[in-house]
Amino acid sequence: MTARTRPFNFSAGPAMLPEEVLREAAAEMLDWHGSGMGVMEMSHRGREFIEIYETAERNLRALLAVPPEFRILFMQGGGLGENAIVPMNLSRGGLVDVIVTGAWSKKSLGEAGRYANACAAASNEASGFTTLPAPASWELREGASYLHLCSNETIHGVEFQTLPDLAALGSSAPLVVDCSSHVLSRSIDWSRVGLAFAGAQKNIGPAGLTIVFVREDLLGHALPICPTAFDYTVVAEHGSMFNTPPTYGIYIAGLVFQHVLRQGGVAEMERRAIERSQLLYRYLDDNGGFYRNPVAADARSRMNVPFFLADASHNEAFLAGAREAGLLQLKGHKSVGGMRASLYNAMPLAGVQTLVEYMKDFVRRHG
Ligand SMILES: *Cc1c(COP(=O)(O)O)cnc(C)c1O
């Protein structure tokens, strides 16, 4: 363990990275492994970068036990880009069902509607996005091209603890999962997934890089309007090098993958995520009503914990004191208000311990 030299950063994304990774990248900035070049200055087709790329892909495949029938694409455009790229590749202009559980899946529904007949198969909006609609209640349309869900709603702090088995629900549609904000914090049951995508800026690396896992049998059906650079089939055929991929982002992601492997892999990330989030939720549920988290217990996210001060007039003082205590970026999303603590893989347990101590101290001073 390196000594703590920086504040704890609770940003929802772009988010904190492991300090060890930042130091490695800094040390290699001017000269990667004696090549005389920094990674940003290398051809994406040169042997040095190909080695970086192949190592990153191999390690990611190992970390998430991605089966061979899935291709891993290193793309650009972020999660919102994928909200368009997925329907352009998978919808065939037909029916797209979406499970609406928060701001992100609601955006996915809106964007898919530009390319396909998109419809909410279930929604928790009436609960203020604080619950998960039971799969048995989902209205799945026959012949849908796919079903979209967001497995962790970053803004509302709602997380699926298991992915639905669509076949058991009588649907043959492939499942599309936006796992941007909890990828690498838990395993993925690939037998239930057709495609998964993740913007990198939460648990993987710099914003811009977007990772897509797509089952091979879903390739080959892009709409004619799909830009060639966003056609999964073309991207897959070119090993993510149809156009210049986000090379520096892939390099940092590769360092993060190696770091996670050294720390014990995704199982260890999950153990830590449970430990961190339980510590915070226990305090939120048992602090005499000064703070509260509104999300139903079985829907609570291990990664993003929104919380509210009962007296919102203390919000500014809370945030200012937190900054002084070395606890950064705790302000909630503007659509929700209050606070949000994002507890991604790079957040040490000590960060949450420090946060809870600060929250207790704040109650003593303002309660
Ligand atoms: C952050 C995030 C995205 C990414 O959106 P950008 O287009 O990269 O800004 C998508 N979905 C979820 C669930 C996210 O948390």
From TrEMBL:
Residues bound to L-glutamate: R45
Functional description taken from the UniProt entry: Catalyzes the reversible conversion of 3-phosphohydroxypyruvate to phosphoserine and of 3-hydroxy-2-oxo-4-phosphonooxybutanoate to phosphohydroxythreonine.
Keywords annotated in UniProt: Amino-acid biosynthesis, Aminotransferase, Cytoplasm, Pyridoxal phosphate, Pyridoxine biosynthesis, Serine biosynthesis, Transferase
Indicate the segments annotated as coiled coil, or none if absent: none
Reactions catalysed according to its record: 4-(phosphooxy)-L-threonine + 2-oxoglutarate = (R)-3-hydroxy-2-oxo-4-phosphooxybutanoate + L-glutamate; O-phospho-L-serine + 2-oxoglutarate = 3-phosphooxypyruvate + L-glutamate
Subunit description: Homodimer.
Keyword Transferase carried by entry: yes
| Entry EC no(s) | 2.6.1.52
Under the heading HAMAP family, the entry gives: SerC_aminotrans_5
- Named cofactor requirement(s): pyridoxal 5'-phosphate
Chief localization: cytoplasm
Gene name in the database record: serC
Instruction: Quote the protein name from its UniProt record.
Output: Phosphoserine aminotransferase
Summarize where pyridoxal 5'-phosphate binds, as residue positions: W104, T154, D178, Q201, N243, T244
Q: How is the cofactor bound?
A: Binds 1 pyridoxal phosphate per subunit.
Q: Which domain of life is it from?
A: Bacteria
Q: Does the keyword Cell cycle apply?
A: no
**N6-(pyridoxal phosphate)lysine PTM positions:** K202
Mind telling me which SUPFAM superfamilies this protein's record contains? PLP-dependent transferases (SSF53383)
